[in-house]
Amino acid sequence: MKLIRNILFFSCFALLLAACQNANTTSNTKVTKLDDILSDISDKYAVLSISSDSRNVNVEVEDTEDADKVKENIKRQLKENGIKAYKVNVRERSVKQLEKENRWLKIEREAVSHLRENEQYKDVTYKMNEVTLKKPVTIAIVAPITKSDEHAQEYSEKLKKEVNTFLQTKDIKNQSKGDFYKIVIYDQDDEVIS
Questions:
Q1: 154 vs 33, 131, 159, 191, CA distance in Å?
Q2: CB within 8 A of 183, min separation 6: which ones?
Q3: pLDDT of residue 13
Q4: Full 3-state SS string of 155-182
Q5: Residue range 157-175, pLDDT digits in tens
Q6: What is the DSSP-derived secondary structure letter of residue 136?
Q7: Nearest in space to 141 (alpha carbons), one of 170, 101, 103, 158
Q8: Which sign does the torsion angle of CA 75, 81, 86, 92 carry?
Q9: Residue 20 to residue 12: CA distance in whole angstroms
Q10: 3-state SS, residue 144
Q11: Beta-strand relationship, 56-62 and 87-93
């Protein structure tokens, strides 16, 4: 009797293990198919970025591509592979806009790095601002002071002058490609000093 119970127990355990392994294989196959689909999309179109989670597929393409066409292609391939769990989001991004954003992100990082070399500005940071094609870039520097500090305005003006001097160097002027900019100094409470 004990032998039969053990055989029954191990048989059920083996079936359970096989079922679990089969479910994992199905899940992994689904992910593999999604990866293959997204790789195919990257090969066919000018894709800037792709991300996915358990519910969404997000794709950014250059503005030279038709976002609706890319979206339909992804949906068609998902359907052909029996994958229904994803919402597909595709958006176009201006290549010129993206280039300007990346260019100024690099310049801002270099400016803050340059400032931190000076003991007086070692705790200065910057905050991200939206960069658009048609507007001047706002370089937002965050100073480790508050607006109400006695010397806040003076410190802010010195900081602004130092940033502007850095932005006028030959290397940075070449990187900025003639884009207009303005420098705004914030205090640690996110209030504009100058």
A1: 60, 28, 9, 16
A2: 138, 139, 141, 160, 163, 164, 167
A3: 43
A4: HHHHHHHHHHHHHCCHHHHHHHCCCCEE
A5: 999 999 999 999 999 999 9
A6: P
A7: 158
A8: negative
A9: 12
A10: coil
A11: parallel
pTM exceeding 0.85: no
Encoding tokens for residue 188?
């640690």
- For 14, how many CA atoms within 13 A lie in the half-sphere containing its CB? 6
Residue 111 CB partners (closer than 8 Å, separation 6+)? 126, 139, 141, 163, 166, 167, 172
3-state DSSP assignment of residue 49: strand
Q: Which two tokens stand for residue 163?
A: 């940033």
Question: Strand ranges (DSSP E) for the chain?
Answer: 47-52, 56-62, 87-93, 125-127, 137-142, 181-186
**Alpha-carbon distance values, 63 to 46, 51, 60, 92, 150 (Å):** 9, 18, 9, 5, 50
Burial class of residue 107, CB neighbours in 10 A (0-12, 13-18, 19+): buried
